[in-house]
Design brief:
heterodimer, A: 311 residues, alpha/beta, TIM Barrel, two-stranded antiparallel ribbon, 12 helices, 10 strands, globular, B: 222 residues, mainly alpha, 0% strand
Chain lengths: 311, 222
């Protein structure tokens, strides 16, 4: 059988790494401690810190009742926790994702770092309460760490509930989300006027509209920022994966494109964490690698943008 | 954008097929029976029976496939399921109760187009899937799978002596657009093409002559 490109590059890398005496450090399980501590950012409203890389579940965890696919997702989730991950983000909009996350969590003896985040996505306060209770049951949790109002759908009604729930301790944090770059005016207005803790928005090396107003507004009002679509739903890999990383990528401790894109997203000063989604253990390890080592500074971020825009 | 991959979609369909097996054979035989009724010509067909059978198939797919299976991975399936149930009710009301559907093969463009689509829906779909290496239980059969059943329904509605009421076209059109877009996104090109043909078929049905020139031979028409 002819080795594929990935095998060759991995073998080449292993040989090079062995020569440098770093192989075991890099690939041994739970060896991330040698890479330094996992990078964390604080949630402005409380000062609690969370790892800069979380996990999204859009598409990847929507596998229905298929036991074989569920078992694979269980390994992905276990790898996430093994690598130091905490935040899992989902939504009732994602089909069976919440149910599958709950299925995996129930089969994990050790998940001390879990930071559970989901969304409410329906109209009316009554339906919202019903949906949030259903999400708690699907995940197998008594309460969520973070409940977000998905794409601001009927946000006034749900925010009223969530304010009350937060007071009662039924949820720890409240947030809002947007995607596709939609409704930025509304998001900015809610961030300014309402007592929310988190805002989730789309931000990646090519989609940087949030830099203009939303990210500065989040910093100004003390809101934690979750970045969704840090890989532009995989499109960044389609476009750039065939190119080699820049020779200066080791300066920011990047060994693959996933880390390059993630480190760009999480290095924005206003960003708290990014939530890439994957269905593969190997990709989860790559993603979590972005939560260790050096991050680009402002000058390096400009260099990264220039590099990808010229490819 | 769809919230699942083709692998997951195939898995859900396989689970549905396994859960209902061997009802898909009965559904398929019901479709073959409807074709046979039309082929036997006026005087021996039972328009009400064809409408009722077709209605049951839509009710089944809406209530079982969409609401009990696909809905687990696709939230919009709740609405699709209700739409399919509505289509079943409309077929019952229009065809079985009011007897407004008169099925006849006429050798005009609509008739030939309808015959070709019937062949595709009833025979080509399972043969292609079977030759593709799928187990029999994983094959999309007319009668229990939404896409070939939609093709079959449009083919049947092309084979009417008088133009069917246009409200019967709304749900098949909506499904053709949604399923076609989904198939395109999942890379199932042949299904996307099939759904495009269904849209053309609906346009042909919609612009059929209000009243056929051919004799309908239906003495008991209301």
């Amino acid at each position: 059988m002819q080795p594929n490109k990935q095998d060759v590059s991995r073998r080449t890398f292993l040989a090079s790494a062995a020569a440098l005496g770093v192989t075991c450090q890099f690939f041994a399980p739970n060896a991330f401690a040698s890479r330094g501590p996992i990078l964390k950012r604080s949630i402005p409203s409380t000062g609690e810190t969370i790892p800069v890389i979380g996990m999204g579940t859009w598409i990847t965890f929507n596998v229905g009742k298929n036991e074989a696919l569920r078992a694979k997702r269980l390994k992905v989730l276990q790898t996430f926790f093994d690598e130091g991950g905490a935040m899992i983000d989902s939504s009732p909009m994602y089909g069976s994702s919440e149910e599958v996350v709950g299925y995996c969590l129930r089969r994990m003896p050790n998940k001390p770092s879990l930071f559970s985040a989901t969304k409410v996505w329906t109209v009316s306060q009554w339906l919202g309460i019903r949906q949030m209770k259903k999400s708690e049951a699907l995940w197998g949790l008594d309460r969520f760490d973070l409940m977000q109002i998905h794409n601001l759908l009927d946000w006034q009604a749900h925010l009223e509930t969530l304010k009350e729930w937060k007071t009662q301790g039924r949820v720890r944090y409240v947030g809002i989300t947007t995607s596709h770059g939609r409704r930025h005016d509304d998001v900015e207005r809610v961030m300014a006027k309402e007592p929310i803790d988190f805002v989730q928005l789309t931000y990646n090396i090519l989609d940087r509209a949030a830099e203009k107003r939303l990210l500065p507004a989040a910093a100004e009002h003390g809101r934690a920022v979750i970045v969704n679509r840090p890989f532009r739903r995989g499109a960044l890999f389609d476009r750039f994966d065939r190119h080699p990383l820049p020779e200066w990528a080791p300066e920011i401790d990047c060994t693959n494109w996933a880390q390059f894109f993630l480190k760009f997203a999480i290095s924005h000063p206003a960003v708290t964490c990014a939530i890439p989604a994957t269905s593969q253990v190997a990709h989860m390890r790559e993603n979590m690698g972005a939560a260790y080592g050096r991050l680009p500074d402002a000058k390096m971020r400009k260099r990264m943008i220039t590099f990808v825009e010229n490819l | 954008m769809l919230p699942f991959t083709k692998e997951v979609y195939d898995s859900v369909f396989a689970q549905y097929s396994a859960a209902i097996w061997p009802l898909q054979i009965i559904g398929w035989l019901a479709c073959v029976s409807m074709v046979a009724c039309i082929a036997m010509g006026p005087g021996r067909t039972s328009d009400r029976l064809i409408s009722s059978t077709l209605a049951i198939l839509w009710l089944w797919i809406g209530a079982v496939y969409h609401l009990q299976h696909l809905a687990s991975i696709l939230w919009i399936s709740d609405f699709l399921g209700l739409a399919f149930v509505l289509q079943g009710i409309m077929l019952l009301w229009t065809g079985a109760v009011r007897n407004q559907l008169v099925f006849r093969y006429l050798s005009n463009f609509a008739g030939i187009f309808g015959a070709v689509l019937l062949t595709v829906a009833v025979f080509a779909y399972p043969i292609i899937a079977w030759s593709d290496g799928r187990p029999l239980a994983g094959v999309q059969f007319s009668g229990t799978a939404p896409t070939p059943t939609t093709i079959f329904t449009c083919a049947i509605l092309l084979l009417t002596a008088v133009r069917p009421p246009r409200h019967l076209l709304a749900v098949p059109l909506a499904w053709a657009i949604i399923a076609g877009a989904a198939a395109w996104e999942l890379g199932i090109t042949e299904e996307a093409i099939a759904m495009s043909v269904v849209v053309v078929a609906i346009a042909v049905i919609s612009f059929k002559a209000r009243q056929s020139q051919a004799p309908t031979s239906r003495p008991c028409a209301e």
